[in-house]
Amino acid sequence: MKPQSAKAKGRNLQKWVRDLLLENFPSLEPDDVRSTSMGCGGEDLQLSPAARKLFSFSIECKNVERLNVYDAYDQASANSGDYEPLLIMKKNRKKPLVVMDAEHFVELIKNLWLDRH
Q: What are 58-113's pLDDT values in tens digits?
């Protein structure tokens, strides 16, 4: 695959995640979630302070056929700053998946459960 095509695949996943966040958090404006250019260091999606209040993750997107998940998660962690790293990965003809720290995941579920009971 040409580098240009690979970057386009990555860009498409970033845009998909951006649109998913904007669709599910209707109080956000389009400028609250911005897809960064390919090759730019840091997070793949830049979130405004308003978006961070609703979604406090640092997002790394990988749209590739073969992926070393731990290396990709390490990259997400290195770019996460004060936020929880979140890896969103996808390959052709497959649904996007999320990788996050298991302890953080259980904490999220526990808090959802406590809020409902």
A: 999 999 999 999 999 999 999 999 999 999 999 999 999 999 999 999 999 999 98
Residue-wise DSSP of the chain: --HHHHHHHHHHHHHHHHHHHHHH-TT--GGGEEEPPTT-SS-SEEE-HHHHHH--EEEEEEE-SS--HHHHHHHHHHT-TTSEEEEEEE-TTS--EEE--HHHHHHHHHHHHHHH-
Distance from C-alpha of 6 to C-alpha of 83, rounded to nearest angstrom = 27
Q: What is the pLDDT of residue 10?
A: 85
**57 contacts 40 by C-beta, under 8 angstroms:** no
Rounded Cα distance, 109 and 44, in Å = 25
Sign of CA dihedral 51, 23, 108, 71: negative
- The residue whose two tokens read 């302070």 is 49
Q: pTM value? A: 0.90
